[in-house]
Amino acid sequence: MTMELRHLRHFVVVAEEGHITRAAERLGMQQPPLSQRIKAIESELGVQLFRRKARGVELTEAGRVFLNRARATLAQHDGAIEATRSAARGEQGRLRVGVMPTALFHPFVPFAIRAFRTAFPMVSLTLDECLSKEALERLRNDQMDVAFMRAPLTEPQSLIVNPLLVEPMVVALPSDHALARRGRGGTLSLKDLAGETFIVYARQLGPAFYEATMAACLKAGFSPRLGQEAPRITSALSLVAVGLGISLVPACMQRMTMDGIAYQRLKGASQPKAVLSLASRRGEPSPVVRNFVSLVRQAARNLHTDPGKSSTIRRSG
Question: Crossing angle of helices 61-88/5-17, nearest 10°?
């Protein structure tokens, strides 16, 4: 007889029951075939596994050793099957998440990531801060799985960019600027900024913010006077803090307090907006990535319909 996993299961049940008839009932089979199978296992091993008693059977010393190994083998087999099925469901694996610097300041992003980690605790997740251009390139080269970013001007054919939410942009001013003295929570129109020097993102690194600033100012009736370009949002705010100009930034950046900076809201039809999106590869085969995209999109929909619902996000499936 060639020993199979089912034979090991039969042996384990007999060992646990200590009785051939009860073991046969538990296995849903007749007692004679089960007795024959146990004898065949003993014959193949060349050892006695059970001592027959008047009211059942008990393990020999060799039988106890075989029981431990049989259980370990079955557990390993069952674990391999479950791990494989779990991976196919996207419950195990890895996920490489890119996050644009400004996205880290929006409370939605850490909330969505925490929700995913709660729903799929066996997934190994890594975060990497990067700018939009870099994120798009790394997504295309399979060096990143998903990226929270500001919507690109054009969507690459190989990627899907899912808009999640829209937030207003505010103006960051030097704290001693005349327009900053209107008081905390005051509002300005873009026309009020017509004579100011704008600190902008480098166009090649953050085209979405650069174009949003230019378009909003032109809509308000003026062409902005551009000052120094900044590679990152924190760099732009540092330049504002030392008095080199002003900058339009997403409203979530007000969560970043910095000496020398005051934030003011903008009013009017030309108020610029910042779109937060999630980018992933088109036709993505990874169930882990598909689960993440689905969960994040659900959280964003909940946020739009009822901000309180976002806390009840659940895994799908």
Answer: 120
Distance (Å, whole) CA 98 – CA 231: 17
Class of domain 167-273: alpha beta
Q: Where are the domains of the chain?
A: 5-89, 93-164+276-314, 167-273
pLDDT tens by residue, the chain, 317 residues: 678 899 999 999 999 999 999 999 999 999 999 999 999 999 999 999 999 888 899 999 999 999 999 999 999 998 888 878 877 778 889 999 999 888 888 999 999 999 999 999 999 999 999 888 888 889 999 999 999 988 765 667 889 999 999 999 999 999 999 898 765 556 888 999 999 999 988 777 777 778 888 888 998 899 999 999 888 888 999 999 999 999 999 999 998 888 999 999 998 777 788 889 999 999 888 999 999 999 999 999 987 665 444 444 445 44
Question: How far are the Cα atoms of 16, 92, 295 from residue 125, in angstroms, in the given order?
Answer: 41, 10, 15
pTM: 0.72
**Residue 56: beta bridge partners?**
53
Contacts of 119 (CB under 8 A, 6+ apart): 291, 295, 313, 314, 315
